Amino acid sequence: MAKGVRPVTRQNPRLDQKGDNLPLDVEISxxxxxxxxxxxxxxxxxxxEQEIAERFDVSRSPIREALxxxxxxxxxxxxxxxxxxxxxxxxxxxxxxxxxxxxxYGVVARLSAQTMPSEKMPKLREFLRRGDHLAKPGVSMRxxxxxxxxxxxxxxxxxxxxxxxEVFTHVGNLAMWQHRFMLTEDVFARRSMEIHxxxxxxxxxxxxxxxxxxxxxxxDLSRDRILPNLPDxxxxxxxxxx
Length: 242
What we know:
The protein is mainly α. The chain folds into two domains: about 25-85, Orthogonal Bundle (Arc Repressor Mutant, subunit A); about 90-230, Four Helix Bundle (Hemerythrin (Met), subunit A) (Up-down Bundle), CATH 1.20.120.530. The chain contains nine helices and three strands, in the order H-E-H-H-E-E-H-H-H-H-H-H. A hairpin with a 3-residue loop joins strand 2 and strand 3. Helix 4 crosses helix 7 (about 160-180) and helix 6 packs antiparallel against helix 7 (about 160-180). The chain is globular, with a radius of gyration of 19 Å.
């Protein structure tokens, strides 16, 4: 097992408990991306076809395709005859990812204010109640970030087309991965929830301009707390204030 990789239990993704009915290679790629985001595999670690095939109890063919999906999503670089190596996103790439996410989330929120079915809106208030609880002192940043992205995916799912949602989640996954560089700040969490409340109220009021502003502000708030903590090529924290 590659250095820095946490043990992952053997599993068979053919047993799809969620009923998504995804192709096997796509399901495996989704699980690998989720493991990378959760830091079960760290940047620089190698994902080997044979090791993954044994863990998922499948042949190497779907694993090969799954790794191509993971590479296309931006999480690994493929090396012929060696496998796939998890990348470390640069400051420039991270900035671009958050710029794209800001624009996309703004569009998603604006469309949601226009098209989200009324029967799906009560769930937004449930999200806010959870978020307010998570904004209290003592909650880890990982829990707070997971909540924010779960809420964002819900808004995207019920406010956009499947293709738009696919692009949104693609960029969102990369941004969520980079949140490992965000420090736990209670003040930040409370401010983030204040803006989440504005966004939900705007969606409920069918106010697309206000919803877009709030969504962009949420991403902007996160970006400002992540970029200063990114390591440079030498492993040092990047100073983006100069």
